[in-house]
Automatic annotation (TrEMBL):
InterPro entries with a match to the protein in the record: Aminoglycoside_PTrfase (IPR002575), Kinase-like_dom_sf (IPR011009), Pseudomonas-type_ThrB (IPR050249)
Organism superkingdom: Bacteria
Pfam families listed in its UniProt record: APH
The protein's name in its UniProt record: Phosphotransferase
Domain Aminoglycoside phosphotransferase: 21-252
Length: 358
């Protein structure tokens, strides 16, 4: 793959193309990520180009990460929080030709997985995300800036879907008719959330907002959770975001890109391990209202992702990269099947939650 990496970027961090090996890595849909191996050092680095059409204020990300890193350094100096490395001019990001770049230390002897192959991995990952929220429980979430305004606001996502629907062409609407009906008929998920939204014991917390398995580094030998990465969307939010997206991405053996819907099933041992891992950190912190909404968090996040893929399909596939025109629509089908499976297994899932809440 051609590396669209300006040598000015390397220079900002004190490296050159000649003395540094660069490879593109990662499977994220949003930012471009490179691994940098300077010849003169043992250490490696991660260099990332921030997608500024998604993150319109890279400075907000930098400010949030600095505030959190400072807090953790004082209160939990042992905790491994991967904060950006400064440029040679002591800047938090390199701003070159209207693009923002940041560099992070590469954590040796760790791996990042794209799919979970063992419930223990669900336990470790959920524990890592729970741990970050627990350590930041006393940190004032309001001091953080939203790095994507309304990112997990289901009201807004529903509105955006309705707008896209109103503007879509007839053939597009025809092609997506079943999924549009599904999107409309599941609006009760939004209404249910809104009936809880103003409770005082449903606080905004510091949330990661992208808890897929590839955002956790595991020890490459023991698979123990080491730290979490991809911190751009750390901002205030409901606990639902993190736990719900784990349900969305850990429970099925196949990803949102799977088109064979028969494969979309829920793995109960993964659910149990995930709940156990998350509650091992968060049980004493979650309020009664939050505890009531544990299973709902999965519904909320799966429905939101279905709406986001459908909105993108109806507006010409501008946000999520696709490898064929109907891919976003296939992703919608996948997500609604997952939502269905969650409902089918609701009783067992709720029993597991209750067992681990005592
Ligand atoms: C995007 O970039 P990546 O793959 O980590 C998206 C998430 C979605 C996910 C779906 C900033 O995450 O919200 O859940 O795709 N991130 C952004 O695969 O929109
Ligand atoms: Mg991400």
């Amino acid at each position: 793959m051609e590396l669209n990496l300006d040598s000015e970027v390397l220079k900002a961090y004190g490296y050159t193309k000649e003395n540094t090996k660069i490879t593109q890595i990662g499977t994220g849909l949003i930012n471009r990520t490179y691994l940098l191996s300077p010849q003169s050092e043992e250490r490696k680095y991660i260099l990332q180009n921030i997608n500024t059409s998604v993150f319109q204020s890279p400075q907000a990300i930098a400010n949030n990460l600095r505030a959190i890193a400072d807090y953790l350094t004082v209160n939990y100096p042992e905790y491994l929080f991967i904060k950006p490395v400064s440029t040679i001019n002591s800047e938090e990001m390199a701003h070159i030709c209207n693009e923002y770049w940041r560099m992070l230390p590469f954590v040796p002897n760790t791996i990042s997985l794209d799919v979970l192959a063992d419930p223990k991995q669900a336990y470790e990952a959920a524990r890592q995300f729970g741990k970050l929220s627990r350590l930041l429980n006393q940190f004032d979430a309001k001091t953080l800036q939203p790095t994507i305004p309304g990112f997990h606001d289901l009201d807004l996502r529903y509105e955006q879907f309705m707008e896209a629907l109103n503007q879509a062409s007839e053939p597009e609407k025809e092609q997506a008719s079943t999924q549009i009906r599904d999107a409309l008929s599941h609006k009760y998920i939004l209404d249910y959330f809104n009936s809880y939204a103003h409770r005082t014991d449903f606080p905004d917390r510091v949330m990661h907002h992208d808890t897929k398995i590839s955002n956790v580094l595991l020890d490459s030998k023991t698979y123990e959770g080491i730290c979490i990465i991809d911190l751009d969307t750390i901002m205030p939010g409901k606990f639902i975001s993190d736990l719900g997206d784990m349900m969305r991405t850990y429970l099925c053996a196949f990803s949102e890109n799977e088109t064979d819907l028969n494969k979309i099933k829920i793995r109960l041992p993964y659910f149990e391990a995930m709940i156990k891992g998350y509650l091992s950190e968060m049980k004493s912190i979650l309020t009664e209202t939050e505890k009531e909404l544990i299973l709902f968090s999965g519904k909320y996040m799966i429905y939101m992702q279905a709406l986001r893929f459908l909105t993108d399909f109806l507006s010409g596939n501008k946000y999520y990269p696709t490898s064929y025109p109907a891919q976003n629509l296939d992703r919608v089908k996948n997500q609604f099947k997952l939502l269905y499976e969650l409902a089918v297994n609701e009783k067992e899932l709720q029993d597991i939650i209750e067992e681990h809440l005592v």
